Amino acid sequence: MTAKAHFLHLATVALLLAITLTSCINSKHVAINRIQQRGVLLVGTTGDYRPLSFVENDSVYWGFEIDMAAEIARNLGVDVEFVSTSWPTLTNDVLAEPQTFDFAISGITITDDRLQIMAMSDGYLANGKTILCRVEDTTAFHSLSDIDKAEVRVMVNPGGMNEKFAKENITNSTIIVYPVNEEIPSLVAQGNADVMITEITEAPWYVQNDPRLAAPLLNKPFTHGEIGILMRKGQNDLLQYVNNLIHKMKEDGSLQKLKEKYGLK
Predict the structure, then answer these.
(1) I want to staple 227 with a disulfide (CB 3.0 to 4.6 A). Which of 2, 69, 86, 125 is the partner?
(2) Of 147, 113, 111, 114, which Cα lies nearest the Cα of 131?
(3) Rounded to 5 degrees, what angle do the CA atoms 7, 8, 12 make?
């Protein structure tokens, strides 16, 4: 091999090595690169969970987690766009091909079942099952056994952890599965059901905004868990980025300020 040929060979090897290294580096940031090249973070949300995620007039989103998603997008240097999903279709929407959104954020509890097939961020908001009832029924409900009686009508939204909890823990009450989550509190207040199975993040908002409602077991939730961001597995770069930002928001106090903004603990 001549000196020139040897030089060209070394140059070719160096170029191939550089391409390989660049490819490896980029492969570690596939999700983030895709989002930044698109210029928009696509966020799946149900928009039916005050005060975490709610949509007004099918277009205006507000809530604690809507602000969380906007903060993630801001840090990525992109815009945010919300994509409608629902509790019954949430898992299928997260795993859909082609991918319809980058992650889902909507008061989603971290569970072992979800972690088996999807990924979830670190938790950032404590959660647990509780009830809403009419103010005049406050003294009737002191425990789950008080609710699990034949004369009690329990209403839940379909497809999520509320329905799952009711069907696993209530055997005597009449369980009514109603499709529109945000309408259930008013239906309870009007007497169409006696109890709504809900969560400690959601119940206070309705109590504060509807004097007909009470949450007598708010400080004694039936379950304990945390809410996080749900995404498909394999987006390790995005998952780590989100977790780092959650940690930063906890450390600098901005997460607490956001909780206070929406009356959350």
Answers:
(1) 125
(2) 147
(3) 120
CA angle 156, 160, 161 (to 5 degrees): 85
In the block, which residue shows the tokens 């959660």?
Answer: 127
**Cα separation, 96 vs 194, whole angstroms:** 37
> Tokens standing for 162?
């509320």
Q: What angle do CA 249, 162, 179 make, to 5 degrees?
A: 110
134 closest CA partner among 120, 122, 149, 152: 152
pTM equals 0.81
CA distance 66 to 48: 12
What rounded mean pLDDT belongs to the chain?
A: 90
What are the CA-CA distances from residue 127 to residues 30, 161, 204 (Å)? 32, 12, 12
Q: What letters, b where the CB count within 10 A reaches 16 and e where it falls short, cover 195-208?
A: bbbbbbbbbbbbbe
Q: Are 119 and 233 in contact (CB under 8 A)?
A: yes
| 254 within 8 A of 41, measured Cβ to Cβ | no
pLDDT digits (tens, 9 = 90+) for 156-198: 999 989 999 999 999 999 999 999 999 999 999 999 999 999 9
Would you tell me the crossing angle of helices 64-76 and 236-252 to the nearest 10 degrees?
Answer: 110
Closest Cα to residue 230, out of 130, 131, 89?
89
Distances (CA, A) of 108 to 14, 86, 118, 124, 154: 48, 11, 12, 11, 21
